[in-house]
Design the sequence.
């Protein structure tokens, strides 16, 4: 997996860090995931899709901390999503890790996704088969696969802690694609979603659909 990424790697604009994260490997305990899809989110007052757009709050305070820390948030009342903080302390920017390929600890990853034994068996004795490509395909699935939850919000990925990001194998720039971010209503036209072309673990693109009241 190479050496761990140092803090200076993250001390850049999120739209520069994001494509450079493709092919890197994030590790938490026994599970390692090679990143194949990410999204950049910008600074307060500049990016209406960012959690920091309206300034610092208790919820987004980690995004204003040191680069290289993990920002984990709860969404839709059921899912956790994980981000890597970018830019110098006090700015407020991050990259959402959207999808990846499990390259180590697949049995543990599968048990987390099925809520069952390490072989994927359910308590009732049946089996729920999850294709390898779907283990970490999407930000919520990726967080579950890595075992990330609210308690990991603020973890420093550049120290000797349990969550680290390693060099992996940077992707050939010719294979990197960019386009609109998924499911955001504001700033949807900003092409800050980056992914590896043709990789089966990349999640499908979904444009935001405005809900109307009857």
Sequence:
């Amino acid at each position: 997996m190479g050496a761990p990424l140092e803090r200076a790697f993250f001390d850049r604009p999120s739209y520069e860090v994001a494509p450079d994260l493709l092919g890197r490997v994030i590790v938490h305990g026994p599970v390692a995931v090679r990143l194949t899809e990410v999204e950049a989110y910008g600074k307060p007052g500049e990016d209406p899709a960012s959690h920091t757009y309206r300034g610092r709050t208790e919820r987004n305070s980690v995004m204003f901390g040191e680069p290289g820390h993990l920002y984990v948030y709860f969404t839709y009342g059921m899912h956790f999503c994980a981000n890597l903080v970018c830019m110098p302390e006090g700015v407020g920017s991050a990259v959402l890790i959207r999808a990846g390929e499990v390259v180590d600890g697949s049995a543990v990853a599968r048990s987390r996704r099925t809520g069952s034994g390490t072989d994927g068996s359910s308590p009732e004795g049946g089996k729920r088969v999850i294709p390898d490509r779907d283990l970490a395909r999407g930000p919520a699935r990726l967080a579950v696969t890595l075992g990330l939850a609210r308690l990991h919000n603020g973890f420093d990925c550049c120290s000797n802690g349990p969550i680290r990001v390693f060099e992996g194998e940077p992707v050939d720039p010719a294979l990197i694609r960019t386009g609109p971010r998924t499911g955001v209503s504001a700033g949807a036209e900003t092409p800050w979603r980056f992914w590896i072309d043709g990789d089966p673990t990349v999640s499908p693109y979904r444009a935001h659909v405005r809900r109307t009241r009857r």
